[in-house]
Task: structure prediction
Amino acid sequence: MSKKVIDVSSYQGNVDWEKVKASGIQGAILKIIRKDLTPDRQFESNWKGCEKASVPIIGVYNYSYATTVNKAKTDAQKVISILSGRKAKVWLDVEDVSQQGLGAALIQVIKAYQKQIELAGLEFGIYTGLSFYNKNLKPYAKELLCSFWIARYPSNNAVEASANPSANNKPVLSSTLEGWQYSSKGRVLGIKGDVDLNLWYGDLAVNNGNKEKNPYPIPQRLLSLKSIQLYGDDIKWVQHHL
Result:
């Protein structure tokens, strides 16, 4: 099971989130910060628009230029400051050419950033392209204790933009895949021009920071461990979490 998610920045301009919601989009990830560490020009507008239209905010992302631990810490603290107490998973976008070939040093940069985010009580994840992951992160996968959001576009990107992509193109990782960005050429009502499209496999966080709730009651038989037989809503409870 997966859900349709978009990620947006100032590049998309003013977004009509009511139309986005009506089009069937089930979540959004918002760019939070620019290279100069000022807020993305549409961040606050997008956050408020998602809240008003009841579009779940899965998280925020920070395109990273960090190549040192100190820079990573500074960037993370700025993201925390912009969130100003709001709860959102923070995705570190690691793909810049300056970060290629750093080897173990890049892992220390990521860990330093992650530590700051988690100390602030926020969840952390890594966004990158599949090629960058395989070349720069996969050798250190056991050290990266977080989920991943991976970009991998099929060769027929324009065609795939309006439909779910083939499962044959889904990224294969040695880490937890939470989301797959499968197109950069999506078209969604309420947005002028192209927008990134994703299939999301993890929980969708609602705007108050809580996870999407399971509507079915917790099986009492599981809690008591007296029986492993499941029926009706018990099965649906398990299926939801799977």
About this structure: The CA atoms of residues 12 and 191 lie 7 Å apart. Strands lie at 3-8, 28-31, 57-63, 89-93, 124-129, 147-151, 176-186, 195-200.
